[in-house]
Amino acid sequence: MKHFFLLIAAALLFTVPESVNAQTQDVKDVRATIEQLFDGMRASDSAMVAETFTKDAIMKRVATNQQGEVMVNTGNLASFLNAIGSPKEQVWDERIGSYDINIDGNLATVWTPFEFYIGDKFSHCGVNSFQLVKKDGDWKIFFIVDTSRQSNCVES
User: Fold this and answer.
1) Residues 111-120 pLDDT 10s
2) Would strands 121-135 and 92-96 be described as parallel, antiparallel, or unpaired?
């Protein structure tokens, strides 16, 4: 009986690090997907940005209108990619403060406070909430919702 427990303990000892390593690699891969999105934005490379999304990705923004009403606005991935690839005089620079990444199987949720600059000029800040799916070994964004404001930025 004692050998049985030792065998079980040894089996657990060797399987836990493997799952931890897989989880750690997934965290790195999820972060790399999001970093590619923002690197592509800075480079005005719509193809680089498009690679980070599923074809049917949903984009939303939670904002307050001029009357003080909270609105949930829907964006369009094709329009976003077109804006990214259009010539611009100054770099669009979304600076991520931190990453809170949670993964369960093929689903990842990521929370990222950010500040957005056009060139060196502060434009707005907020938080991104990403939902990613792992398909064919790659993490892709299938849903993103963000907030946008000019003050009370989230400390990261």
Assistant:
1) 999 999 999 9
2) unpaired
pLDDT reported for residue 21: 54
CA–CA dist 156, 154 (Å, integer): 6
Angstrom distance (rounded) from CA 128 to CA 143: 10
Calculate the CA 3 to chain-centre distance.
47
Contacts of 25 (CB under 8 A, 6+ apart): none
DSSP 44: T
Distance CA 151, CA 155 (A): 11
**How far, in whole angstroms, is CA 73 from its chain's centroid?**
19
Q: In which residue are the tokens 């934005």 written?
A: 41
